[in-house]
Amino acid sequence: MAMKLDLTGLLNGTESELTVKESLAADFTDDEVYVEGPIGVDMTFFKAGDLVIGKGRLNATIRQSCSRCLNEVFQPVTVEIFEQFKKENPASAGNGEIELGEEDFVFPLDGDGWLDLKELVRQNLVLNLPEKVLCRKDCPGIKSDITRKKKIDPRLEKLKEAL
Ligand SMILES: [Zn+2]
Questions:
Q1: What are the pLDDT digits (tens) for 69-86?
Q2: How far is the CA of 142 from the centre of ligand 1 (A)?
Q3: Domain total of the chain
Q4: Where in the sequence is the domain holding 17, given as residue range(s)?
Q5: Ligand 1 centroid distance, CA of 137 (Å)
Q6: CA 73 to ligand 1 centroid distance, Å
Q7: DSSP type of residue 128
Q8: What are phi and psi of 118, to 5 degrees?
Q9: 144 C-alpha vs ligand 1 centroid, how far in Å?
Q10: Is the overall model pTM greater than 0.90, yes or no?
């Protein structure tokens, strides 16, 4: 599927709503999140003032390690998304000033009004990773088959006792 979503129609008012139902290939190149199989994206975008609102959900199967035994665990997750999007303003970009406010929660679109859908999906998955996963509730942890027994010379023991 297209990784970039054209939101220009919503931004300039020629479209009122955009519905996205896609299956996104999970070929993330970073190692923050491992996804098994495709990611289901079900989102609706609409215009609100000079912003575009996107809401919906993602479905994915996350591959993580069991917190106790480190075995692989496949964890299905559903992430509810509510994001605001705005075109990056070239005038305000790069002036070095940090303004805290509503803007911080706005997902930037590139200058043409295109949304990087894959990046949106990636960020939402990373933020919603299950913190602790277990392969099963009563996972006993790492099992070791190694048992070490020291052979103790009884004569040596006797000697120790005597000292
Ligand atoms: Zn385990």
A1: 999 999 999 999 999 998
A2: 7
A3: 1
A4: 4-162
A5: 8
A6: 8
A7: T
A8: -65, -40
A9: 13
A10: no
